[in-house]
Design brief:
The chain has 366 residues and is of the alpha/beta class. It is 23% helix and 27% strand. It is elongated, with a radius of gyration of 26 Å. The protein starts with 12 loop residues before the first helix and ends in a 10-residue tail after the last strand. It comes from Caenorhabditis tropicalis.
């Protein structure tokens, strides 16, 4: 005896709308695959004002689409190769009929080519009128950057770990690094984790970012820093080989109206010495008696815990460019922090910030 069927699509539309609003995103996605009519109902009745974000990841095994609600992250769709999944049902998406399996954690779709299968993201974007807010890729999925990097608010390049018992982060190859750097990613926040190959060099341009993070920047040169400053606003370089003399060279280039997009730089720098940093620029300096505050309001409005105000200590001598722009240097933990303002009137003198920076105390002369 066959089980009784429930004629969902024959319900009054008012009832159907309320019922669809009770389903979670995963259930709505599955329902939309049932027919064109079901797809249309989801588009019409889905609550556009619900608070959630979509992320796309491709780090280790296969691409995944996830949705994030406050305090939770759930896997939405997993895109696997045909050898990884034996589907029992089939669905048609974008003209492709593929095996489909519903698991307790997600929907799994089987594709012969993951590069075609990832286009399921286009289907989800159209269905829910959302674009991915976060994209995370590993070395095997760099090709995904060309599809989504310009849509995502945040892009992360993640390394992968070697197998146990000696698990460690594996460096990117030179070819992978060059492919990433030449992709010209456009996203407000770009974080690059992992190591670069020893002796790596790059002389090209960089993408456009409100906040650019490089975890391993031992390859960064003064020329790279100038190039980054042409398109990036806030820059954080966790590790580097640059010295105070290199920073001095960079500031002299900045004084000649280069790297004009840069507003803040946090970098681990060897032997931080204020006299060396500002050597030869003494006649371009003025003293600010009060505190100065740097804040990227555009960044803090978009990302939680980002763009936090920095408070530079009072009594600093700062650089003033001939167009009025101001540059100040202080310490943030063990790193050099440089803040840049458009003019003396924008430094928020005597205001307070969340992060209290320290003045640079020159090391004693041996």
């Amino acid at each position: 005896m066959s089980s009784p069927s429930f004629r969902l699509l024959q319900l009054p539309q008012v009832v159907l709308r309320e019922l669809l609003n009770l389903l979670d995103l995963n259930e709505l996605f599955i329902f939309s695959l049932c027919s064109r009519r079901a797809n249309r109902y989801v588009k019409v009745y889905f609550n556009r004002f619900s608070k959630w974000k979509m992320s796309v990841t491709g780090c280790i095994s296969w691409p995944e689409v996830r949705f994030e609600k406050p305090n939770t992250t759930d896997t939405f769709v997993v895109i696997k190769k045909s050898s990884e999944l034996q589907g029992t049902e089939k669905v048609t998406i974008g003209g492709h009929t593929v095996p489909f399996v519903k698991t307790p954690e997600s929907c799994e779709l089987l594709w012969d080519d993951e590069r075609i299968g990832i286009k399921i993201v286009d289907y989800i974007c159209e269905l829910f009128s959302r674009v991915p807010s976060f994209l995370c890729v590993g070395p095997e999925f760099i090709w995904m950057l060309k599809l989504f990097s310009n849509l995502s608010e945040e892009v992360m390049v993640s390394p992968i770990q070697s197998k146990r018992p000696y698990a460690k982060w594996m460096p990117f190859s030179e070819e992978e690094c060059l492919e990433l750097l030449t992709a010209k990613i456009i996203s407000p926040l770009f974080v690059w984790g992992g190591d670069f190959p020893e002796g790596f060099k790059y002389t090209g341009s960089f993408g456009v970012h409100e906040h650019f993070v490089i975890h391993e920047g031992l390859w960064i040169t003064v020329e790279n820093l100038v190039s980054i400053g042409k398109t990036c606003t806030d820059v954080f370089i966790r590790e580097s080989k640059l010295t105070s003399t290199d920073i001095n060279t960079f500031l002299k280039i900045w004084m000649n109206h280069k790297a004009n997009a840069l507003r803040s730089l946090v970098i681990k720098c060897e032997n931080i010495n204020q006299d060396v940093i500002f050597n030869g620029l003494e006649d371009k300096m003025i003293t600010v008696e009060g505190t100065m505050v740097y804040e990227n309001k555009k960044l803090s409005a978009k990302f939680k815990n980002m763009g936090t105000p920095w408070e530079f200590p009072p009594g600093l001598t700062v650089l003033r460019r001939n167009d009025g722009m101001i540059a100040a240097a202080a310490l943030l933990s063990i790193r050099l922090c440089i803040g840049i303002w458009t003019d003396i009137g924008s430094i928020r003198e005597n205001d307070t910030g969340t992060w209290k920076l320290l003045p640079i105390n020159n090391p004693p002369i041996p």
